[in-house]
Fold each of these.
Amino acid sequence: MPDFIRRFGELGPDGEYFLSSSRQSIITSLLSAGTFVGALAQAFTSDRFGRRGSILIWSGIFTAGVAVQTGTEYSIVQMTIGRFIAGLGVGALSAIVPLYNGETAPKALRGTLLVLYQLQIIVGIFLSYIIDLATHKIPSSASWRVPVGLQLVWGTIMLSGILFLPESPRHLLGTGRREEACTVVAQLNGVPLDDPLVQDLVSELEYGIAQENEGGKATWAECFSSRNMLWKRTMNGMMLQFVQQLNGQNFYYYYGDTFFKSAGTNLDPYVIQVILGAVSVIGTVPALRLIETWGRRRSLMVGALLEAGCSLVAGVVGHLTLAPTGTAKELLTKRNKSGGDVLIAFAVLHVFSFSVFWGPTPWVYLGESFPLRVRPKAIALGSATNWFWNFLLSFFAPRIAAKIGPLILLIFFGMLLFGYVYVYFFIPETKGLTLEEVDEMYTSGVKPWNSSTWKPHLGEKARQRVAEMHKAEGYEDKRVSPTESTA
């Protein structure tokens, strides 16, 4: 935006202000650096202050970073520091929110609620594109202060809204706060505190957590230990995040303007962003149902094949029909209607397929794959992996595409085929399992390709233990009378 460039750019020999590549890199990379650090740092606050308290802390940090950016006048140092601070909050919340959702949601709805997390992110991005489109022609600093400053609203919603939500019952039980956990379980299930269901569920959770937590306090090294197959689970979480970033969809956001121009479109880059954002929102909606009907494995494998096909067609057709034969200016003004239409069509289909499958599913898997003792640390490693490769992609993809053009899509084609193979051989199905049953599945050594038909035994053992406890304490009679149960 012109006002932004005038305030934070450099004066060129022609008397016009411009943003040098080095300044653009600093402004961009400091946010990515913040997200990487924040994703790892939240592991310390999640255990110490709880999931709810940790969300409160990092929402405050994010909001402070936004305030620093919004109040900047001419200092690029202040702008980049503000972006780094805001990035700390973004990275931390990207790990804590799936963690919190996974621990508070019932198993039948956990996948849907974690997809809803991704849908809200996509809707937020889409709204930001619309706001950019609406403000970019304002001649004053409002052109960029409005989009940046509006983030204060979302930060305030997080800061105030979390006060009305309960703490994770698993965290409460893990820290010895059983009475509070019973209250939360009752709230989450919509039943009175003295309902027998509360004691049954809490006892089952206690049994599962006790099985998980034998051995004392967890360390970062334990995430890669052979205990309960944690190394495999951590690597699965990190690999899914790695493949997600190299699906190729983000490339269209970073470099789509140039590509679409070479395809012959005269659309404004802001309009292109809005179109891609709308496609992402529409694509994420079906995932709310597919994540629980198709499951995690099938969604990932089908998505990998669909996106691979889109990358292959767009890459080959784009190279053969839009390959540069002259200067960059000639390339951008050259029009090959058939090739350009194919490239645009498959780019949109690629983004849509990603939104249905690989956009939300790795986050769902990350939020439900780890035992309580290492969950914050393992999710931190997965989230940090996502932000690390996000930074590398945004930094290197335009430079690679400038040299080989549409053929860069063949790199993503190869990564998607790798992702399909990896999911088939290493990613088990976690649909319909409690977090404790996911732990049992990994330790039982079931093959991923047989995991869809695997039946857990932990819940049965926990229920038998609860029944024996009820019998020993005469609890069967108490179940008849809520008054006696409360007493």
Amino acid sequence: MKLLFITLGLLALAIAGIAIKLWAKKDGEFAGTCASQNPMLNKDGEACGFCGKMPADCENQ
């Protein structure tokens, strides 16, 4: 039972940390989630399938 409480406590702490990070970030977005920013995933320079941005349009390059 003690292990269950420790596990749930750590899980709650992780979720709270993610929530605080989203709350503190501008526009509440995770940084670098666009696949077009990753040269290993986008070798041909195609537009992102999620947001439609081209690699040159991404801010964090």
Amino acid sequence: MSEKDQVNQFSREIIEFQRKNNLTDTEMALNSHVSVEHIHNIKAMRENPEPSVVANLRNYMEHKPTGK
């Protein structure tokens, strides 16, 4: 899978997670400790995220507490 395909897939995962959990980009940023700008750019596929950003987002999505 190419790097662009990986970013595209990850952006879809973020969008689906937000939809499922009714989260805005701002809420996702605050809870995952990733800037809202990074989240916007990843979803728009304008940025290849650093591994640490991907790790923070994946960790949050896998361990999201109830509530938000």
Amino acid sequence: MPDDQLSRTFAALADPTRRAILARLAQGEATVNQLAEPFDMSLQAVSKHLKVLERAGLISRGRDAQWRPCRLEAAPLEGASEWIDRYRSRWTDRFDRLDQEIKRIQEGQDRG
């Protein structure tokens, strides 16, 4: 697997558990135990997901005495969003042309 930031971001986002963890962290910091609560998996499994997210730069872990809160880091998500936006206009243009072609074909069938 390529080791660039965009590839790490998309690889981390490919898993629904990790996306759910990010959605929870979008509401604010949380501990591993808090993040693990809604999932039917071990703390070790949740920790593995957190390591993937951390390697991708999508989360960071702080330290406040015994409390190690996880927090969302938005920069990699912004990078992924920028990459998607570059292609969005191309996709939109192609879909618009396809829609026009479908309408032209349908109009031709209605006349025939």
